Amino acid sequence: MKSLRKKGIQDEAVLSAMEALPRHLFLEKAFEEWAYQDKPFPIGNEQTISQPYTVAYMTELLQVKKRQKVLEIGTGSGYQAALLALLGARVYTVERQQELYEQARRKLDQLGFGQIRTYWRDGYQGLPELAPFDRIIVTAGAPEVPEALLEQLAIGGMMVIPVGKKGQRMYRITRQSENQYDEEVLGHFRFVPFLEGKENGDED
Questions:
Q1: What is the pLDDT of residue 19?
Q2: Contact indicator for 145, 138 with CB cutoff of 8 Å
C-alpha cells in the first residue's frame, strides 16, 4: 500500500480494504505471482482487472459510506465489487459477458461475498427496477455518459466513470437535483471499451 500512498491515495478505509482483499485470488493462476504489482492483467474475454492504483483512485473518488446502495457496471473479475462490499456498501453489479458474470459470481460466493447481487445484463441500461443508487461506478471507458445511468442516480448521489474513445478522462458526476448534475473532469486513464448489449458465452 506504500506505493498507492506515494501516488496520492489518502483514504485510509480504501487502503485498509485493499490490504485485506487478496488480489491474487481474482487472477488467473498464470499471473498470481505478479498479483501485487501495480499493473492490469487479462482476465479473459478481452477484459482486464485494473491496476491497483486505478481501483484505489476510483474508489476514493466515490466516497462510499456504509449501507450505501452502490451500482457497479462491469463486474469483470469481481475484485472491485468485493472491495466495495468490504467498505460496507450494498453492492449491485452488472456484467455483459456471460462467462465473466458466472466466474465472478462463483468467486464472490467462494470468498464469502454472497451478499453482492450480480446480474448478467446490458450495463448501458443499468438496473432501473432497483434504482435509485447512492453511488454508481463504471469500470470501462464510455464514449459518453449513458443517460439511463444518470437517471438512476439518487439526488445527492455520485457516479465515477471514465469517458472518452481512445483514452479516457475520469469524471465524477454529482446529482444536485432532478435536472441538475455537476461534473468534475479529472485524470487521464485507459480502459477497455464500454460496450452496449450483453454477450452469451456460446457466441463467437
A1: 95
A2: no
In a domain, 203, yes or no: no
Range of the domain at 136: 60-189
Q: Which residues, listed in sequence order, are joined to residue 161 by a DSSP beta bridge? A: 171
What is the domain count for the chain?
A: 1
Kindly state whether residue 8 falls inside one of the protein's structural domains: no
8 Å CB contact between 140 and 75: no
- Quick one: 182 exposed, middle or buried, by C-beta within 10 A (0-12, 13-18, 19+)? exposed
Grid cell at residue 134: 447512492
| Active-site pick, 16, 50, 77, 177 | 50
Q: Considering the domain boundaries, does residue 154 fall inside one?
A: yes
CB 45 within 8 A of CB 76: no
The conformational region for residue 112 under phi > 0 = left, psi -120 to 50 = alpha, else beta, is left
pLDDT at site 203: 45
- For residues 114-138, b (16+ Cβ closer than 10 Å) or e, as one string? eebbbbbbbbbbbbeeebbbbbbbb
Q: Give the predicted TM-score (pTM) of the model.
A: 0.93
10-residue mean pLDDT profile of the chain (204 residues): values are 88 96 86 75 77 96 97 96 98 96 96 97 96 97 96 98 94 97 95 84 49
The answer to whether 77 is a known catalytic residue is no
CATH code of the domain covering residue 127 = 3.40.50.150
How much is the pLDDT for 37? 81
Residue 53 is assigned to a structural domain of this protein: no
pLDDT at 116 (0 to 100): 98
